[in-house]
Amino acid sequence: MNNILIKLVASTTMTFGALALSNVALAQKVDPAVQAVMDRSFREQGIAKLDRIQQDEFQTLCSDEKFRDSPEGKKKAEALQSAALAAIKPPSDGKYLGNWAEGEKIAQSGRGATWTDNLKTVNGGGCYNCHQISKQEISYGTIGPSLLEYGKTRGNSDVILTYTWNRINNSKAYNACSNMPRMQHFNLLTEQQIKDVMALLLDPASPVNK
Ligand code: HEC
């Protein structure tokens, strides 16, 4: 999957149209002719502006497979990951876990940041688009690993709390080419929302861990 899609996923509801487009862009993103098609194919509408098809440093690196897999590319990826990790803000009150029931609603919701939304729309996390999470929800995507029994199998140590927090806030801190949207980096979820999805994954009372 291409990183342009990530920005789109991060900012719009995922559609099969977007998926198909991303596959075209993946191999050829550096080709100016492809960029021209991209530029022609999207228009601004509502809050969805064209800056969304501009790649940032991570996306440029990951779209250029040859460079990405070279020793210089790997060095660049490590530098980007370290900078991303250093930029993640820990919870302001030191508490990592919110309310798992709220977290389930956030994980279910793909609302927010699309051209049919406005700036007041509460964003969802769209987590089920890519992850299995609870047993009860049988409709989920498989782009990401299953998070079923996440807390039950990993526990609640500080290491796990911090790792999970960082992953949700900016997955590219661990894998420059991660396909997971950067929730904090793009202000997709609030701190409280991230605490709530943390609880969904890690609270022993959450259905994810039953
Ligand atoms: C567009 C797909 C996508 C969405 C949406 C997404 N993720 Fe992910 N997630 C991934 C992928 C892919 C990975 C695998 C790790 C990587 O990319 O390096 C991952 C990894 C993770 C991990 C680490 C799992 C492990 O075993 O180490 C956690 C935790 C996680 N995601 C939580 C979430 C939560 C919570 C949400 C919603 C707020 C979410 N993800 C939304 C794609 C996604």
Give me the secondary-structure topology.
Layout: H1 3-11, H2 16-28, H3 32-41, H4 57-63, H5 65-68, H6 71-87, H7 100-108, H8 150-154, H9 158-169, H10 191-202
Helix pairs in contact: 1-2, 7-10, 9-10
Bound molecules: heme C (HEC).
Heme C (HEC) binds next to helix 9 and helix 10.
Could you list some keywords that capture this structure?
mainly alpha, binds heme C, 47% helix, 2 domains, 210 residues, 10 helices, disordered N terminus
Give an overview of the whole structure.
- With 210 residues, the chain is an all-alpha fold.
- The chain has 2 domains: 30 residues; 180 residues, Cytochrome Bc1 Complex, Chain D, domain 2.
- It has 10 helices and no strands.
- Helix 1 packs antiparallel against helix 2 and helix 9 packs across helix 10.
- The longest helix is centred in the middle third of the chain and has 17 residues.
- It is globular and about 50 Å long.
- It starts with a helix and ends in an 8-residue tail after the last helix.
- The N terminus is likely disordered.
- The structure holds heme C.
- The site of heme C has 25 residues, from helix 9 and helix 10.
Short description:
This protein has 210 residues and is mainly α. The protein contains 10 helices and no strands. The chain has 2 domains: 1-30; 31-210, Cytochrome c-like domain (Cytochrome Bc1 Complex, Chain D, domain 2, Orthogonal Bundle), CATH 1.10.760.10.
- Indicate the structural class: mainly alpha
Low-confidence segments, given as residue ranges, are: 1-28
Q: Which bin fits the share of residues in helices? A: 40-55%
Q: Could you give me the name of the CATH homologous superfamily of the largest domain? A: Cytochrome c-like domain
CATH topology call of the largest domain: Cytochrome Bc1 Complex, Chain D, domain 2
Radius of gyration: 17 Å
Bound molecules: heme C
Q: What is the number of E strands?
A: 0
The CATH class label of the largest domain is Mainly Alpha
Biggest sheet character: none
Measured between the Cα atoms of the first and last residue, the distance is 32 Å
Number of domains: 2
